[in-house]
Structures are given as C-alpha cells and as structure tokens.
Amino acid sequence: MNLNSQTSSSIRKPKTFNNPERFIEGWYWVIPSRNLRVGEVKPVTILGRELVIYRGKDRRVTTFDAYCPHMGAHLAEGKVEGNALRCFFHHWKFDAEGMCIDIPCLDTPPSLKLQTWPTAEKYGMIWVWTGEIPQQPLPFIPELEQKECDVAIHSPFLMNCHPNVVMINAIDTQHVNTVHKLPIEIIFERQELNENAIIFSNTTNIKENSSFIKLIRLFYKNAITISICYWYGSIGIVTLGPDFFHIHTMFAVRLHEGGKAEGQILLITKKRKGFFGWLSNRVVLWLTKIAGKFFLMDDIKIVQTIKFDLKTPIKADQSIMQFINHVERQQSLMWGTWQEARSRDVESKPKRERWQDTASND
User: Fold this and answer.
1) Where on the tree of life does the source sit, at the highest rank (predicted)?
2) Would the pLDDT of 292 be above 90?
3) What number of other Cβ atoms are within 10 A of residue 29's Cβ?
C-alpha cells in the first residue's frame, strides 16, 4: 500500500467524518425494546428529528414523524388502537403504514399519509432506518450472524465528541501500548463487508515477558483475536479473546446536538441452551463487562476532552485513515432534516441492491 497516497487523501478536510451537521444513512438505535410495551406510544428525538414510536397489538413497532398533519398536535399524546394510532386532538387515526383511516366528522377520510420510517428490532434494541428503503440488514456481529444471542444493555451515555471520533478509538493501535500498556503489537487488516460495513481484524502473537501474559497463555494455544466491525461510521462491534472464548461488545452511537455522541453499550454472546447455558451466559456477560471497564476507564478521559484534528498522520494511523475514507464514501444526510447532503457519483459506484427485512421486528 502507498502510505503517502493514503495520507494525502486522508488529510484533506473530510466532508462527513467528524462533521456535526452530517451523519451516514443507516440503522440507528432508538430505545431498548423492553422500554416500549404493547399499546404504548412514546416521543423520541434522534439525529435532530422528532419522532413518535408505538407498539401495536401485533407487537410490531411503528415510527412516524411526531406531528399530526392536521394542526400539528404531537402524536405521542395520542392512543394506540389495535395496530393504529389515534391523535388526541381531533381523533384522526393512522394505520401502521401512516395512512389516515378515520376522521370522526367525515364518512371518508382524505387520502393522507404520515411520514413513516422503517423500524426493526435486534439485540434488544429498537432501530430506525433514516432513509426510505433499507439498503442493508440490521447491524450484526459477523461471528454470530445466524445465531440467537443473549444481550445485556448498559445505560445510555453522552460523550463530548463526534460519534466518528468515539469509533476510531478501537483501531488506534498506538494507544493500546501507551494508554493501556498492553504488550501487543497490533497490525490491522481491512475487509469491506459491504458498502456500509468494514472490518478491521488482527490475530497476532504477543510478547510473553509479563506475568499477566504468561498466566493467560495457559488458556489458549495461538493468539489473541481482536476484530472491530463498523457500520455507518457510528456503530462499532469489538470482538476480543483467545481461541476458545470470544467476547463481543457493541458500541451503538448516534450524533447528538452540538456534535456530541449519545450511545448505548450492548454486551452480546451466543445463546446457550438450558439452565447451565443461561448461567454460563450470565458469567460471560459479566466478564465482558469487566473487560470493557478495564479498557474504557482511561479512554473516557480522552473522548470527553479531545478536539479531534488529524493534521500529522503517521504510518501507525493507517487504520484510522482507512476508516475516515470509508466514512467519506458513504451516503451522508443532514442533521435534523435527514436530507441527502451530497449527490452520489453513480458512474463510479455499482448500483446497490435493495434490501428489505421481511421479518423486521423479530
């Protein structure tokens, strides 16, 4: 790889990366699934846009723009009826597709449709796609793509930097040695999973000159695996561990007002059968939490005070520059409006296949 070429393309001012007015079109977390009961409606604001979500009788979640098209009443004041939502003000009723299906003072309602947003559930979270038709599946852990999972969800957090900056911490190979003082030489290999997802993986032998390393060497044969899968530049899935035991942590972050990052941490493991399987998963998720705390304690001090500006990239920053370029190639939207921020170069990119989740609320 030509590092000079990579550096030259990366130090040009990015249009999307670390831009407080832009984010990547994709799936973004809303609230934990457990926080929305059947028949319940709630107001939410994500990425600068006010929305309303509700769970119908069929247990599926629906997302509308927040305000009634009649006089602008907030629909979160309304009532769920079956799988539809009725506005509190004049009792206009909208089905799960956003169509107005009943107005009490009219025999036939006018042809009127609310703005709806594709909504799905996975890993215990409700997710919303910020465009018309989902182009990609919900974010998943490559190693557990087709497997049922147990999940532990942490409390939401707020960081004083852009979600993109929170994300690059995991592939900053220098800080593994300087901040965490781990005797590991990390060299990431990049793999494009799809247009919106990229994987950085490293499997390397580690130095055995510390008592900690000599201890854990008893429990594995070859090397410690480190893999980070990114979706939309703001969801990072970290897989870490020796050969026989991998732990998975998802950092689901979205752009907040003022260029800050609000997010959720999800601890995830493969579902195991029976009582002992359930019990072992509690231990696995607890160990994942302990490992996460170890790495996050010092990192939080950095991301809460950093004013990111990569003016002098060096060879060790190669993965960070690759990540920035990956973000720049994706479709960006404007904060608040969710309108396209720039046009696509359709001649230079293959047409993306349309993807739709046939079971979007599994």
Assistant:
1) Bacteria
2) no
3) 25
CA-to-CA separations, 257 to 26, 128, 161, 220, 226, in angstroms, rounded: 18, 18, 11, 45, 32
Beta bridge partners of 62: 54
User: pLDDT per residue over 319-346, tens digit each?
Assistant: 999 999 999 999 999 999 999 986 544 3
Q: Are 44 and 51 in contact (CB under 8 A)?
A: yes
Burial class (CB in 10 A: 0-12, 13-18, 19+), 181: exposed
pLDDT at 210 over 70: no
Instruction: Please state which CATH number belongs to domain 142-334.
Output: 3.90.380.10
* CATH architecture of the region 39-129: 3-layer Sandwich (2.102)
Tokens of 120: 């799905």
Chain mean position to CA 82: 30
pLDDT at residue 67 tops 50:
yes
Tokens of 90: 């004049």
Q: How many CB atoms lie under 10 A from the CB of residue 63? A: 24
Neighbours of 155 (CB within 10 A): 6
State the distance between the two ends of the chain, measured CA to CA, in whole angstroms. 42
Q: Which two tokens stand for residue 263?
A: 């997010």
DSSP structure string for 316-335: GGHHHHHHHHHHHTSPEEET
- DSSP assignment of 170-227, as one string? GG-HHHHHHTS--------EEEEEETTEEEEEEEE-----SHHHHHHGGG-SS-EEEE
Tell me the per-residue pLDDT of 105-163, one tens digit each, with 9 for 90 and over. 998 888 999 999 999 999 999 999 999 999 999 999 999 998 999 999 988 999 999 99
Characterize the bridge pairing of strands 49-55 and 41-46.
antiparallel
Per residue in 236-271, is it b (16+ CB within 10 Å) or e — as a string? bbbbbbeeeebbbbbbbbbbbeebbbbbbbbbbbbe
Pairing status of strand 197-204 against strand 189-194: antiparallel
Whole-number pLDDT of residue 261: 96
Using CA atoms, how far apart are residues 63 and 53, in angstroms rounded to an integer? 5
Structural domain boundaries in the chain = 39-129, 142-334
